[in-house]
Each structure stands twice: as structure tokens, then as C-alpha cells.
Amino acid sequence: MKRGILFAVTMAATVSVSATASAQDAEELAKDFKCDTVRFAQPPWTGVSIKTETAAWMLKKLGYEVENTTASLAVSYKAMAGDDVDTMLSQWFPSARSMFRPFGIQGKLDIVSPNLTGGTYTLAVPDYVYEAGVKSIEDLDEYKDRFGGQIYGIDHGSTGNDTVKSLIKDDYAGLGDWELTPSSEAGMLSALANHTQDEEWIVHLAWAPHPMNINHDIKYLEGAAEYWGPNKGEVIVQTVTREGYAWACPNVGQFLDNYDWTVDEQSLAMEYVQNQEMEALAAGKRMIRENPEMLDRWFDRSGIYQTGGITTLNGEKAAKPIIAKAVKE
Predict the structure, then answer these.
(1) Residue 18, Cβ density class (10 Å: 0-12 exposed, 13-18 middle, ≥19 buried)
(2) Per the CATH hierarchy, to which homologous superfamily does domain 119-234 belong?
């Protein structure tokens, strides 16, 4: 009996010392991170620009220094793995899986949480092409001459372009002799507009959320699920950080964990930018003013990294009232 009591007391003391040591170790490790500065990477995509610039503006209002670097997805991954960037909000899964995987295996990057669910990313055609019989990716090669053997992509280094390259390399459904025409988001949209004006045939990268789904009558193609994922390329957009960042900087980490947009919210904000010529940050602020409940999601929730809501950098004030006031100025 005495041995049991002695063992229990010894174990309790050991656990207490270990917990204290672990807490001290964590604080020492956190010193390697400069938590008063948040460095974003931002691929040049409209939706990502809105989310990133809105997040950066809010963090500045909370007392943080913020840096925002525009770079391709591939460059952004390398920058985070090299500790030159802290986070990005633009990992589209499953299309980015192969690009992310080496960094995941090496433990260089952390996936924090989804910032958007229920999106779509695959190939699409105008509705008149769809009605003519092109309803799946497997149908494309039958009409190669009508398409000119071209698939219109976006910027170099994008996961969508890489997926199209894989389709061509693997000669999927006879696409081995097709060509990818890389461009940019704006360039692809211009090509779509030019082709649909005269009902010419075009197949192009498409995704939701995006105003192209409002501005153009397009249909997403079935098929190639092993490349795009099931359900016509259903996607999750994830927030990624360099290794350990959210744990070392828990106030920012919890904000990043909370920070999400719905498909409808992001689509509307993108419509403000592309159709009403608003700047990305102005569109983000307008969304907050018209939907103040977004701030409840972003700032009131506790989570993995921190108990209690998000605060200013110095921890003295709650974040939500500050942003709610600033967005009206």
C-alpha cells in the first residue's frame, strides 16, 4: 500500500516538473519566431487577393506589422519552407496535393484549417459546347478540331496548369497531342469572353467561387476524378503556415484557424472587384460592413491554438470591436 502511495506521489511530481519544463521549452522555441510581424504569400488570384489583403489589414489594425508578397504557388511553398514567409491562404486541394506533398513529408509546412469548402476546380466549356455533346473530359478529343487542340490555363506554376499538363503527359482520354495555353486569370477570362462572343469553342480552367460563373454561361465537365477529385473537382481551400508558426504565435494562429469565407461570400467579393472595379481590400471591407457576422466567426471563437477570442498584439483589447469600428471609417 505504501509503495503504491509513494509511486503515485512520485509520478505526480514527475508530471508536474515535466509539464513545467515543457511549457518553458515551448516559450524558448517560440522565441525563434517573430510573432509581431505576419508575412503573407499571395498568388495573383482575385479571391486570394481579397482574403489575404483583408486579413493583412485587420492584423495591422490589431498592432501587427504585415508583409505581403505576391508569388506563384510553387514559389510560395518554397518561401514558407525556407522561413521567408509565414502563411498563405491559397492551397486548393486536391489539385495542390502533389505540390504540397514533399513539404508535408519533410515536416516543413503545417496545414492549419480550411478557409473555404465546397468549391470547384476543373475544366469547363460554354453551355452551347456542352449542349453539343461535350459533357465530360473524356469527350474532348472527339472534337479536337473544334477546340484547336488547346486548353486555356492560367499562370505558370498554378496547380490547375500542372493538372492539365499531367492529363496531356499521361495521354488521358486521348489528350496526349493537345496543348496547354498558359496565361493568367485575366488572360483566360479574356479568351473566354472572346470565344463566347461568336459562340466559338473553348475549353478552359474554371473554378468556384468566381464571378465567371455569373458573367458567363459555362458548364463544368465530368470525369478525370483521379486528377481533379470527385464531384467535378470539388475542392477545399486551406490555410498553410511554415512549420510550428501557429503554435509559436497562438493569437495569429487562432485567427488563421478561424478565418474562413463561404463560396457565396467570396464570389460576391470577387464580383465587386471584377465587375465594379473595386480594389481587393475595398471589396473585403464592403463584405464585412454588409455582413458583420463574419467578424463573429473570425474573432470570437476559441480553438486549437488559444482559449478565448482574438486580441490585439499586446493582448490588452478584444479584436472584434476594433475591426468593427475601423471598417466603418
Answers:
(1) exposed
(2) Glycine betaine-binding periplasmic protein; domain 2 (3.40.190.100)
**At 252, which amino acid appears?**
V
Listing DSSP states for 197-210 in one string gives HTT----EEEEESS
Instruction: Look at the block and give the residue holding cell 473553348.
Output: 202
CATH class of the domain defined by 33-118+235-326: alpha beta
List the alpha helices (DSSP H) in the chain. Answer: 2-30, 46-61, 73-81, 97-106, 127-131, 144-147, 159-169, 185-197, 212-215, 225-228, 230-233, 245-248, 250-258, 263-276, 280-290, 293-299, 319-326
User: What's the CA gap between 112 and 121, in Å, rounded?
Assistant: 21
* CB of 319 closer than 8 Å to CB of 62: yes
What does the DSSP 8-state code read for residue 221? P
Which cell is 42 given?
499571395
Same fold, 33-118+235-326 and 119-234: yes
- What's the mean pLDDT in 209-238? 93
pTM of the model: 0.79
What digits encode the pLDDT tens for the residues 255-302?
Answer: 999 999 999 899 999 999 988 999 999 999 999 999 999 999 999 999
| Confidence check: pLDDT of 205 > 60 | yes
Of 97, 82, 99, 91, nearest in space to 48 by CA: 91
Mean pLDDT of the chain: 92
Q: What is the structure's pLDDT at 159?
A: 87
Helix (H) or strand (E) holding 179: strand 179-181
Name the nearest CA neighbour of 216 among 225, 224, 228, 204: 204
The answer for residues whose C-beta is within 8 angstroms of residue 119's C-beta and 6 or more apart is 92, 207, 208, 209, 234, 235, 236, 237, 263
Domain boundaries, the chain: 33-118+235-326, 119-234
